[in-house]
Amino acid sequence: MQHFLQQLGHSGIDFFQRLGRAHILLGHILSGVPSMFTRIPLVIQQIYSVGVLSLLIILVSGLFVGMVLGLQGYNTLVDFGAEEALGVMVSLSLVRELGPVVAALLFAGRAGSALTAEIGLMKATEQLSAMEMMAIDPIRRVLTPRFLAGFIALPLLAAIFSAVGIIGGHFVGVGLLGVDDGAYWSQMQATVDLYDDIMNGVIKSVVFGVVVTWIAVFEGYDSIPTSEGVSRATTRTVVHSSLAVLGLDFILTAIMF
Amino acid sequence: MNTRKTEILVGLFMAVGLAALFMLAMKVSNLNIYSSDAGYEIVANFDDISGLKVKSPVTMAGVRIGRVSDISFDSQTFEAVVKIRIESEYDALPKDTSASIYTAGLLGEKYIGLEPGGDEENLKNNDKLKLTQSSLVLEKLISRFVDKFVDSDDSKN
Predict the structure, then answer these.
(1) Which value does ipTM take for this structure?
(2) How far is CA B115 from CA A174, B96, B112, in A?
């Protein structure tokens, strides 16, 4: 019993210590942001590896999510004779929820885990210490460009996801199931609001981008520098950032809509 | 991976992302039919507006010429005060235009239909519409119908 309580206290203290370290690291990363304006090539390199390389999975899953929404939405709406509202259903669910959330989950799996593994291995092979020996701040040199890249890439990926999904829904609804083309777009345009829906979706994906890359970068930097430690850190990145995205999504939705 | 290729691909990625955002803004949202601050505002008081919302369409002859911009309650007259923003290109509405609340479709949303009058003068910013007709509430309609039915039954006996 005493042992159990000890364990509980230990893990509690551990949790708060990690939380504190994560916030100190975030402050350190952000302090390096101004210097990035003179080192844009570093950021571009990272946008390539987190953004461009995630493009394929985002395009394919966006298309299929949109097609599934078109099919399911049609089957439900046709019972009420309201299949003209298919465009509204597809676009609102993509722009408000699925675009930012699914893109962030895929991003955590595709780019977040890679970031953690890369930084963890840099730490395990003592590349970060070597930088410090050369009087280069590894946080500003390695972590800040990756953080900025995630912050820039995820909103764009989420927008691409939503746009491709709407086209996929159009393909199934209008192309295969015979919903009227004009009704699909005009009902969508009459209902979706630029500020309430699209801007809030973009804000969501910006928040998710910050959180997912923050977790990924922190887990990598904080990992135990062994192969087991890096593999655990990578797993934690995916699990924690997925949970954070879903939890934050609820809070953001409650605030926004 | 040479830098040039990376830069081109990142440039393409940014362009595609921004194009997707642009498409969402122009093609999906109501940006092109909702101009926020242009136009002028008129006020109409209704006894009952149930179902009307801010941003509900305002039409004349079936064409959307504006939107409801604000709804409030007048505690003196117990009426709903509806502010209507008319787009600036429709600036020649007669002063005695009347407003009624209609429903689009059986379960559809409420909208305001404007009927032009014959006045020579035109409506200006913050003018008040004098003739208004309230929203039809289904329950009231049914209860009136039932009352009539019961009355006519009574008179037979």
Answers:
(1) 0.78
(2) 37, 9, 10
